[in-house]
Amino acid sequence: MLVKRLQYLALMLGIVLAVPVVQASSDPAAEMKPAAAVPAPAKEIRSTADHGKFKELQKDFKSGPEVTQACLTCHTEAAKQIMKTKHWTWEFLNPESKQRLGKKNVINNFCTAVPSNYEFCTACHVGYGWKDSSFDFNKQENVDCLVCHDTTKTYRKLPGMAGHPPYQDTEFPPKSGKIVPAVNLKDVAQNIGKTSRATCGACHFNGGGGDAVKHGDLDSSLKDPKKYLDVHMAKDGLNFTCGTCHETDGHNIPGSRYTPIAKPKDANPHIRGKNDSDPVTCQSCHGNKPHPQALSRLNSHTDKLACQTCHIPEYARGGKPTKTLWDWSTAGKLDKDGKPFKTKDSGGHDAYDSRKGDFKYEANVIPEYIWFNGKVNYTLRETKLDPNQVIKVNSFEGSADDGKSKIWPVKVFHGKQPYDIGNNQLVVFHTYGKDDSALWSNFNWDKAIDYGMKEIGAEYSGKYAFVSTEMSWPITHMVAPKKDALACAQCHAPQTGVGRLDKVPGIYMPGRRANEWLNTAGWGLALLTLLGVLGHGGLRIYLARKGDQK
Amino acid sequence: MSEKIYVFKVFERFWHWSQAGLIITLLLTGFEVHGSYSLFGFEDAVNTHTLAAWTLVGLWVFAIFWHFTTGEWKQYIPTLVKVDAMFKYYLTGIFTHAPHPFKATRLKKHNPLQRLAYLGVMLFIGPLIWFTGWFYIFYDKWTEWGWDQYLSLEWVAFFHTVAAFLMLIFLIAHVYLTTAGHTVTSHIKAMITGWEEVE
Questions:
Q1: Contacts of A153 (CB under 8 A, 6+ apart)
Q2: Residues of A with CB below 8 A from B168's CB?
Q3: H helices within A373-515, ranges in order?
């Protein structure tokens, strides 16, 4: 309380002192003449190169790869750099667990798996033409520069086109009556620039098949967020792009959900540009003692808590609910005309879709909290599973005493998806395609699974059932302003079931679950003492009165 | 006419009452931090507790200095003389208006039971609460200072709470025994005015 008052006093003093300075500095601005006399350029270019003037780009491009060839005439190394990244390979070998991960290999509990559905899924590949497993990963013109570097907001890749944008006006979604206009490649190419929240978000905000579906802390509300939603990315604030934190070197973008940094080094706060192996952590700018002296007690939390735990009080805070449950087992119901249908929940979001099953959406979600040391283990397709248990598609390692963990907020996503009851393994199934086997064509699971498993050359017993699954996503975006961070009592809560960290094991937290034995003994003895003195005093009063009466 | 002697000097009375206020504040906020109830809110409880603790430390530095420079520390030298008489008085004599077995003087202001109790507070509860309290306050420095391998917050908090319970028990008994002087109010008056009625 006192501290707050002192801060307030200091603030008032600061304002009083600052006012003359502000007035002084605003005077010259008032004298400035409007710049009407100077003809304004059509578009201000901050870069030293105006791509609109490059002869290589004065051309009516017929396709994406043609544009890339033009890009590569100057940016000779760009495609080679991209080809080394997960954005291109969709493959990642975890150096420690040796698990082969990446979109190409992992089965998740959203859309589940890429193989046999390439044409659809690769709308989010930084390449052109990945329509089946024969895609040539070494062809440089297959790299898509525009999807990340577009500034016109007109470049859009549609599912089902194997990573190409529409070169003609295209009805999308099919039979919806909505037309997505053909992309003007020349215009996009002449106006390329740095990546933005919108370009990264074109895929990352739509993970799991739609806006806000997958991550919970990444959705289209971050394109132009207000300060309360993201204190770094707010347009009226710092206006960070994704690349400000994911500081990229040679197209290799730091930050990984396969090998996250759970307990960043205690870096001294420094400015960008210093050689830093973990540029994407909060600590790389803020250090591990970020709170001012007056709040130094908070700094004693940083050895156990990820910054995100207090500073992201809820996820899906931007008005876009995130999906929290996807039950594939109910997919395939048809209406009385034999047609697939959808039902909506009270918020207007899909509650059921014949193609996908049942959903649940939630907004402003309080995360779950876990010890996390950065190691993530996946249930891969080959992994044998126990169908009587909830299968953890990924499980986060960590504990209170391994010295490598911090308490992290996570989104836990619940699913139900098919598995092979003969082999007790997850299956790949064929969701999308113009053929007879795709689930979305004829709602036949047998055919869809059979096709999917053949596609990856895996053994399938021919019998499937549905198993409950769970997947965790670390929450790290949507950092709130400090006034919206968690207050002490939201974790330091005496009642069970109230505190945010109630279920987190292995730590003593003042205010949470005091030692019962000590409480009983302590309060018991205090009560006995009180009764003792009350009895003693009572007896004195009683005897004194009796004495007076005599 | 009853006899009055000047027992408690200005500093002692100031020390006593500010210490009383601080200890009650520390108990109220401390048990909230411990999780026993919600009163001020966790954050304010912690901040007030810390502030009151440091104030009390400051007060103690002055008190220790005062006791040694004035020689008043001798008031706390334990003695067993008349301890039995004091027990007997509290158990029987007090009910029958028997004379108080101890007569305070300027050189001996505390009865033998008080001497023992206060010495216990100063030599046992005090150090326990101070040391655990300091460990607690400097929790964020443990790693830096290499203490984290020897200390666990849970045990530090445990012993700090043990000491707090002992202090609470002392407080209850102490407040009641202030009424057990030559008259019901003579002790309290002495601690307010400095003058104690002794006969």
A1: A198
A2: 522, 526
A3: 439-442, 445-455
Q: Average model confidence (pLDDT) for chain B?
A: 88
Q: Which of helix, strand or coil describes residue A438?
A: coil
Percent of chain B's residues with pLDDT above 70:
98
- Express each pLDDT in A189-241 by its tens digit: 999 999 999 999 999 999 999 999 999 999 999 999 999 999 999 999 999 99
Average pLDDT, chain A: 90
pLDDT tens digit string along B5-37?
888 889 889 999 999 999 999 999 999 999 998
Class (C level, CATH) for B4-197: mainly alpha
Flag whether residue B124 sits within 8 Å of chain A, measured between CB atoms. Answer: no
Dihedral angle sign, alpha carbons of residues B21, B23, B24, B26: positive
Partners of B165 in the beta sheet? none
Compute how many other C-beta atoms are within 10 angstroms of the C-beta atom of residue A544: 13
Q: How far is CA A342 from CA A286, A336, A349, A505, in A?
A: 47, 13, 10, 42
Closest CA to A85 of A326, A268, A270, A256: A256
The count of other CB atoms within 10 Å of the CB of residue B98 is 11
Q: Give the start-to-end residue ranges of the domains of chain B.
A: 4-197
Q: Letter for the amino acid at A550?
A: K
- Give the whole-angstrom CA distance, residue A167 versus residue A176: 19
Q: Is B168 on the interface with A (CB under 8 A)?
A: yes
Is the Cβ–Cβ distance between A378 and A393 less than 8 Å? yes
pTM score, two decimals?
0.86
**Closest among B26, B129, B153, B53 to A301, alpha carbons compared:** B153
**Residue B43 with chain A: CB contacts under 8 Å:** 487-489
pLDDT at position A24: 39
CB A373 within 8 A of CB A387: no
Binning pLDDT at 50, 70 and 90, where does residue B86 land? confident
How many whole angstroms separate alpha carbon A370 and alpha carbon B149?
24
Residue from A101, A71, A92, A89 nearest A136 by CA: A89
Flag if B42 and A515 touch (Cβ within 8 Å): no
Amino acid at A547: G
Which residue, among B28, B31, B47, B87, would best test binding to A if mutated, counting the most A CBs under 10 Å from its CB? B47
**Low-confidence stretches of chain A (pLDDT beneath 50):** 1, 12-36
Contact A489 B41 (CB under 8 A): yes
- CB A65, CB A191: distance < 8 Å: no
SS3 A131: coil
CB contact under 8 A, A521 and B42: no
The answer for A 468-487 residues in CB contact with B (under 8 A) is: 487
Confirm or reject contact between B91 and chain A (CB < 8 A): no
Are A466 and A329 in contact by the 8 Å Cβ rule? The answer is yes
The amino acid that residue B116 corresponds to is L
Task: Name every chain B residue with its beta carbon within 8 A of the beta carbon of A548.
Answer: none
B81 has a chain A CB within 8 A of its CB: no
Kindly write down the DSSP assignment for every residue of A513-541, as one continuous string: S--HHHHHHHHHHHHHHHHHHHHHHHHHH
pLDDT at A37: 52
Q: Is B98 on the interface with A (CB under 8 A)?
A: no
What CA–CA distance (Å, rounded) separates A290 from A282?
10
- Which residue has 């959808």 as its token pair? A342
A510/B140 Cβ within 8 A = no
CA-based max dimension of chain B: 65
Of B199, B180, B191, nearest to B4 by C-alpha is B199
Q: What are the E-state strand segments in A187-294?
A: none
* ipTM attached to this prediction: 0.89
Higher-scoring residue by pLDDT: B199, B197: B197
How confident is the model over A108-158, as pLDDT tens digits?
999 999 999 999 999 999 999 999 999 999 999 999 999 999 999 999 999
